[in-house]
């Protein structure tokens, strides 16, 4: 489940060429900057009052960019997207058609396939989100280890150096991550996989599997406080 075709429907992005020659899907992350370097400087097709948009940004027809948005660029944003209030798109971001980037969400060196949603208080660094992948409110995708060195992924039972010092996550098509969950560096979620709210996830979650906490909740009788 490490190849692009294992995780993603490549017809659901206009940028499938990023995966050409990649043995593993995460290798496309190294190619985003060079890919976007070919984007000619272009003024946005229309003005978006209250938004700050860099010169090397392409915005598709029908996309809404709300006041308070900052798009540094380079970036390509597809058609009919919602880029909501106070979203922050840093360098090297590619967003497909029909995507949502929500309030106070931050993206950096990321690729979103068509229909992906990061709608509330999300951080997505050095990551790829598949077709209709969805993050709940407050989900953070961590992209750097606490200790020096490249991110490793377990392949066939052995750690493999990805060659990336910064690598957040790969979310397969239709993957869902619940509110306030954290995906640690190098996480890979298969198609249709689900991570429940508040889960601290690390590693590989196969397609159509669910990761959830087993913590017990204690219920006690509510007693009045002493005056």
Write the topology of this structure.
Layout: H1 4-7, H2 32-36, E1 52-53, E2 57-59, E3 64-65, E4 70-71, E5 75-77, E6 82-83, E7 88-89, E8 93-95, E9 100-103, E10 106-112, E11 117-120, E12 123-129, E13 134-135, E14 140-141, E15 152-155, E16 158-161, E17 169-171, E18 176-177, E19 182-183, E20 187-189, E21 194-195, E22 200-201, E23 204-205, E24 210-211
* CATH fold descriptor: UDP N-Acetylglucosamine Acyltransferase, domain 1
CA-atom Rg in angstroms? 19 Å
Q: Helical element count?
A: 2
Could you give a short account of the major beta sheet?
Answer: 14 strands, parallel
Superfamily (CATH H level) name? Hexapeptide repeat proteins
| Tertiary shape | globular
Strand segment tally: 24
By CATH reckoning, the class would read Mainly Beta
CATH architecture: 3 Solenoid
Strand content: 25-35%
Separation of termini? 60 Å
List the helices and strands in order: HHEEEEEEEEEEEEEEEEEEEEEEEE
User: Helices and strands: which structural class?
Assistant: mainly beta
Mean pLDDT: 93
What is the helix content? under 10%
Spans of at least 5 consecutive residues with low confidence: none
For the record, the count of structural domains works out to 1
């Amino acid at each position: 489940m490490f190849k692009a075709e294992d995780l993603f429907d490549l017809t659901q992005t206009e940028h499938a060429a990023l995966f050409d020659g990649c043995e593993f899907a995460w290798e496309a992350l190294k190619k985003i900057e060079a890919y976007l370097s070919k984007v000619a400087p272009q003024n946005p097709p229309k003005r978006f009052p209250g938004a700050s948009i860099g010169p090397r940004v392409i915005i598709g027809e029908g996309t809404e960019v709300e006041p308070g948005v900052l798009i540094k660029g380079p970036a390509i944003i597809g058609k009919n997207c919602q880029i909501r209030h106070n979203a922050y798109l840093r360098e090297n971001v590619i967003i497909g058609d029909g995507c949502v980037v929500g309030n106070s969400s931050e993206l950096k060196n990321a690729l979103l396939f068509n229909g992906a949603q990061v709608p509330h208080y999300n951080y997505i660094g050095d990551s790829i989100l598949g077709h209709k992948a969805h993050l709940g409110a407050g989900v953070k995708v961590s992209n750097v280890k606490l200790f020096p060195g490249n991110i490793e992924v377990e392949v066939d039972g052995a750690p493999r150096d990805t060659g990336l010092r910064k690598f957040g996550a790969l979310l397969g098509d239709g993957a869902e991550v619940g509110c306030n969950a954290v995906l640690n560096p190098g996480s890979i979620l298969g198609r249709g996989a689900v991570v429940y709210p508040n889960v601290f996830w690390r590693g590989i979650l196969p397609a159509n599997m669910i990761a959830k906490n087993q913590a017990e909740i204690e219920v006690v009788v509510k007693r009045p406080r002493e005056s």
